Amino acid sequence: MLKINKLNSGYGKLQVLYDLSIEIPEKGITVVVGPNGAGKTTLLCSIMGIADVSSGEVEFQGNSIRALPSYLLARQGISYVPQMGNVFAELSVRDNLQMAGYLLPTAKAKKKAEQMTVMFPVLKKFIDRKAATLSGGERRMLAVAMGLMKDPKLMLLDELSTDLAPIIAEKVISEVARLRDELGITILLVEQMAKRALEIGDTAYLLVSGGVRFAGKARELLNEPELCNMYLGIKQPAAQNIPSIEGSR
To answer: Taking the domain 1-21+30-72+185-249, which CATH number applies?
Structure first.
């Protein structure tokens, strides 16, 4: 669904990504992990036209999107949920969902918002509360729901587990798997909770210093103890026999 070829990008004179090439298969979860400063968020910003791309190509469903602004990418079916600032804190949950459905006709936006409260029951419970009063996990659920309001083909999710308690982060990550399994949405997931992300992912890329250090099946990266120990903080004493993702569904 998305193909990036020899991408060089950054911010002004600061280059972050170097000749980076990745492919995101349709209807799966592609996980991007790596140490701080590896360029994970810059990758998402490069796709969305936020970072400065000096060379390389970004293709969505076979068409170049490198020069397109973010609002046109949204209309093509790409939804981006950033790490921070992903909800309107002073607006109610209801108004946040309505704002997220600005591309849809009014009647469809209302129906879609109702669907989101069914999919995420906690949002229905707090539908008239300001987003600022929600817990961290509840705000993440709202941010994902807002991303889904656009009927996306591809969702870019950046560090959903940031600042969440482990039990809440686990719930949020599990919801990502549900988006793939129940809705068939293609997902590019950048995540600091690397082990859990790799457990639910289909494809994985390990970024180190702006380049790809590993590319392959997500579960295979968990079988690389040296890479896991050195770059992800996952202590793997030896290669594991982890069931394939196909066998765990």
So the answer is: 3.40.50.300
